[in-house]
User: Fold this.
Amino acid sequence: MTTNPEEQALFADASQAKLERQQLNPADAAFAIQRGLAKARTRRMTGHVQLKWITAVLVTALAAGWLLLGPLGGSTPQQAMYSQPAQNWGVLEPFRELAGKDVDGNTITSAINNGYVQLVNRSVKSGIYQLTVNAVMADENKMIVLYTAQTDASQEIYSVPKTSMVNGMTNQSLGNGGISSLYSSNGKYTLYGRSTVEMDGNTPLPGQVKFNFRISSVVPDLLTDTNKVKKDTKYQFSKPMEVSFDLDPKFSVPKTEKIKLNQLFTIGGHEVMLSEAEVSPLVTRVRFIYEPNQKIDYKTKLSVSDVVNPTEIVSTTKDRQKTLLSRVSGNGTEDGMIYSFSSNLLDAPQSLVLKLHGEPGKVYDDLQEAEKHKLELKIK
Assistant:
């Protein structure tokens, strides 16, 4: 039985990671998220809520959507809208399947296909556990690490429940991020994973990165009498482990393209401005300002947030190939929200069009009908 508080928290993270790998119905997942938001709105009307809580609710809802519909859990992965020409990824070929099911998959695919990647191949081992950092890609706004986690044949691997990245020289955290992983098709002892951190773009990239993590595994059932009731599954965690690597200076060269938009539109009876977009090799960010000509209170802000629901960005290259850039995360600001999407800037898109749900609260019979009613805002 796990009693250590830290390991209890890790177990909760590991259980969620396991849930991500289950096949979930996207419609059911979307309904669950909407129901949770509705309950939150009901609770809001019965008590006083501080402004700081707004961001927590919004980010929690976004995280739920990411976990249920994004990396590996959803049965509708965010893939390109066209068949990409097959390119050999060399030693990174095992990560192709992960990219095909990951919310950041099109970013990873674009980076690898354009050579915007650094091979690392640094490993650390502790007891039955081993992790190899295979590769890294970075820009001033985001860092993505691809890794392989393994156990020996004595225990099946369960998950990499938590990771973090810090500046190797200062030990300062590089930012907040997420994880996704996929079992190897060769057995139950290997996971291919992706860990990301989003950064504010104002701090120079570090010369060295420390990747911290723990691995969890399933403790074998020692019962030999099959007639006995099987005990609850037990999990074991590695001790905290770390891989350090130098970061290629080439990642500091690309600069973020900032696009002033100031596009006003009305949705759900509210005036909203798409004020600007930021585009870099690994992330696309858009900023919304709610009721720009008014001073709004927190109830109004929550009301607007409920109806402003960007879903994806459609990227079109010069040869008219279209790619869906998935929504990855969102953060509240004093006057609205900033949403992050995946990016294929390295493919030189000629057009970027942001799509939002157009009629708040409307129920559609099928996805085609819902798509027709989406609101489109041109970024470039």
About this structure: Helices lie at 5-20, 26-44, 51-69, 96-101, 105-113, 298-307, 367-372. Confidence is low (pLDDT under 50) at residues 16-83.
